[in-house]
Design brief:
about 300 residues, alpha/beta, five-stranded parallel beta sheet, five-stranded mixed beta sheet, 10 helices, about 35% helix, about 15% strand, disordered C terminus
């Protein structure tokens, strides 16, 4: 059974949204203490509803990886996401990078968030995405914990070099992790000049010319006949969000540059490509032959 669509058939990509607020991003963690989160103006609900309206206009269904912290405060938003036909998945509870958690703390985060989201929506939660894509060589134990907790897939690895995340030796397309049996669905990259280049959204979608991004995703769809995974955050459609003081120049550029362009680019993106939920794109029976891969575990993993 082949996991590739027949030649000539259009490829459907996965649209995903990481539901977190602007003050919860890793780039600001040295400027905003976690205990101060409640004191910052919350904008995640309004921004997420803007995203829902955009998807409704274009008849797009997506997967929303929801932070437990957000779901606990805005259960009606989570219910509305599910009621609109989108997949509700887990982003963990408090946006802690796995490198900052013990195995027991991670287990508590993913079980607590899964239970919370399922209680709110009344439907099973199958997917998970690690904050800051922090499943890597030292945290591969997370796959085993996710499988034990009842998750069916993770989308937590980006096979590129990056200063905050990345596992360039990992496969570019979905695979079953050998030790756990969990399906890992990497964020999309395009292979050029002997290395992987980001082509899955996030800051790169704002910072790079749209034509360059479009060319990369088209290459993945048309030449490799593979589905891509695209992601963004609700705060990326919010140019009026409060400015955080004390942020380094690099992080200011990463977070604030081209925020006014995100929504118009998303409008173009959903016209230029086909999108659907993660579960419908990647958990279908026709994708049963994903390879089984033994990832290289770093010796520093001591959890």
């Amino acid at each position: 059974m082949s996991s590739l669509p027949p030649p000539g058939d259009p490829v459907t990509n996965a649209m995903t949204v990481d539901v977190e607020d602007y003050f919860q991003v890793a780039a600001f963690e040295k400027c905003i203490r976690r205990e101060d989160w409640p004191h910052w103006p919350v904008r995640v609900e309004g921004n997420t509803r803007r995203v829902l309206e955009l998807f409704e206009r274009h008849s797009v269904h997506a997967t929303f990886f929801v932070l437990g912290w957000v779901a606990e405060r805005f259960p009606a938003l989570v219910r509305d996401i599910g009621a609109a036909g989108h997949e509700v998945a887990s982003h963990g509870f408090g946006h802690e990078r796995l490198t900052n958690l013990s195995r027991a703390e991670f287990r508590d985060s993913i079980t607590r968030t899964k239970r919370l989201l399922e209680d709110i929506t009344g439907t099973a939660v199958y997917g998970y995405r690690a904050p800051s894509y922090s499943i890597g060589p030292t945290t591969l134990w997370a796959h085993e914990e996710l499988r034990e907790a009842g998750y069916r897939y993770s989308s937590s690895i980006v096979p590129i070099h990056h200063d905050l995340y990345g596992m360039p030796a990992a496969p570019r397309f979905p695979f079953f992790a050998k030790r756990s049996g969990l399906l890992e669905i990497p964020v999309t990259t395009v292979r050029l000049c002997g290395r992987n280049w980001p082509c899955g959204g996030g800051g790169y979608f704002r910072l790079l010319p749209y034509a360059l991004f479009k060319h990369g995703l088209r290459r993945v769809n048309r030449r490799e006949r593979r589905s891509g995974v695209f992601y963004f955050h609700p705060w990326e459609v919010d140019p009026q969000q409060p400015r955080v003081p004390g942020v380094t120049l690099k992080n200011r550029v990463r977070h604030y540059l081209n925020l006014t362009r995100t929504a118009p680019r998303l409008e173009r993106l959903v016209r230029d490509f086909r999108f659907d939920r993660m579960d419908r794109v990647f958990l279908a029976r026709t994708h049963a032959d994903y390879p089984v891969v033994a990832l290289q575990v770093a010796e520093l993993c001591a959890h």
